[in-house]
Automatic annotation (TrEMBL), chain A:
Keywords: Cell membrane, Membrane, Phosphate transport, Transmembrane, Transmembrane helix, Transport. Part of the binding-protein-dependent transport system for phosphate; probably responsible for the translocation of the substrate across the membrane. This is Phosphate transport system permease protein. Residues 87-297 form the ABC transmembrane type-1 domain. Residues 1-24 are annotated as: Disordered. Its main location: membrane. It holds the Pfam family BPD_transp_1. GO terms for biological process: phosphate ion transport. It is a multi-pass membrane protein. SUPFAM superfamilies: MetI-like. It is found in: Cell membrane. It comes from Halobacillus andaensis. GO terms for cellular component: plasma membrane. Belongs to the binding-protein-dependent transport system permease family. CysTW subfamily.
UniProtKB/TrEMBL annotation, chain B:
It comes from Halobacillus andaensis. The lineage of its organism: Bacteria, Bacillati, Bacillota, Bacilli, Bacillales. One of its GO terms (biological process) is phosphate ion transmembrane transport. Signal peptide: none annotated. Residues 6-247 form the ABC transporter domain. The keyword GTP-binding does not apply. Pfam families: ABC_tran. SMART domains: AAA. One of its GO terms (molecular function) is ATP hydrolysis activity. GO terms for cellular component: membrane. InterPro entries: AAA+_ATPase, ABC_transporter-like_ATP-bd, ABC_transporter-like_CS, P-loop_NTPase, PstB-like. This is Phosphate import ATP-binding protein PstB.
Amino acid sequence: MDNAQKTETNNHRLLKKNGSSSKRNESRGKVLVYSSAAIVIIATLAITIFLGYKGIRTFFVFDVNVWNFLTTTGWDGTENSGAFSFIFGSFAVTFLAALVAAPLGIGSAIFMTEIAKKWGQKVLQPVIEILVGIPSVVYGLIGVTVIVPLLRDNVGGLGFSLLAGMIVVGVMILPTITSISADAIKAIPQDIKDASYGLGATRWQTIYKVIIPAALPSLMTAIVLGMARAFGEALAVQMVIGNVKGLPESIIDQAATLTSIITLDMPHTTYGSVHNSLLWSLGLFLLIMSYVFIIIIRVVSSRRKV
Amino acid sequence: MEKHSYEIENLNLWYGSSQALHEIKMDIPSNQVTAIIGPSGCGKSTFLKALNRMVEMVPGVKVAGNIKYNGDDILSSKYHPEELRTKVGMVFQHPNPFPKSIYDNVAFGARVKGIRKKAVLDEMVEKSLKRAAIWDEVKDRLNKNAMGLSGGQQQRICIARAIANEPDVVLMDEPTSALDPISTLRVEELIQQLKEHYTIVVVTHNMQQASRISDRTAFFLNGEIIEYAQTDQIFSNPKDRRTEDYISGRFG
């Protein structure tokens, strides 16, 4: 009897599957999902093509030399403009910020996943989630009102400086690095931690001989993602870095970044002018760099072992 | 008189408010294989983990009683668990090599102890891999990642890693439950060879395995030792009704 009942429900299922209404549902879902995917791809392609077209115009229509553009300083909005100081500024802020945020981020990730699990997950994790959500203009405001005067009084210079940019952007990318690192460390199987403790390793030895090496590719991904965010950050940097168009000579000098110069100069240019076109080229450079960051992340995370 | 690696008395253990071990009393003889059998949740793994104090890593655990290892009270606060664990090795249920080379896996314990000399490490790695009966299979690829080996090979690497510390006790927590029959056979043979040098305590679900490899068997039920005797006696002539029911497959 049981069997007979089973076949009956099976038949019922088969019938229903072949019914025209579920077939229609099937194709409707398909269209929905396929078109979402298509829109995402088209949007990415469109932005890349548009920015590529606009950015390249500088070099073909206005005959600006690419090499000069990338390697010389002196930004006057003419065909002789060089963007090197902004490229340098962007990279300097990015690397300095990563230098601050990477050790702090990985350190607090270890703290909240391995040392104080309860406390870390109850207190530190929500705090970090809040930090991720704070808009960058707020970081900029705090930078201008707290960090800049503090640097002016204690370190010297005007306060508006690469150093201020490094601190503000470093704090901004800290939660990104921390939360991705924490996820990476949590993903290390308990098995291999037990193996380490079972061999007589202390907690600290287990952390630096087993957990960090096993999580290293993911930790690198966390740092590169943080750097990508730092590289693209405009508002907060612009508020504290001083936006001087020359090359900074020291860390307490004012500087400018690719993003800050685009947001500052764009309103003052006429559409179609050399100056306007130069800014598009800076935008193209930013886009290319974000592609580079993504490639780095891909390469690094493909080396993951656990 | 028989020498004992462990002398355990009045051992009680709680996870939070539920008691997992009741008044355990057991002497574990040196250079013999002692098997611990019992149904799931009877406390046999907990007991094993108490022997190298790994059980303390579980939050909310409380241990009371007396565990003497070679005459020293290991539950005393003066006894460092790290020191204990270098003398009492452990092999786990699932093979758990580090995602490192075979060499680095076996040399891990020595490096933790601060041994850096390459010659010393080389010799120790070779000796341990030979004792774990896996040297011939891996000697040409010591620098390859241990995760690339088969499950049975990984488990023997884990045994090599444990004995590289030169322990005198090796605890094994269902070491073959994740292995195929042929790998299981090899590990069982290995256990037989290892008892010449080490005291072995093995937790197993598999009663045939206990009868094949062990000299003594303890039967655990609900956190208590029901019967502990020579393996032949347990399997041929159990004294307790519950032991008989369990080994004849009537429950568990």
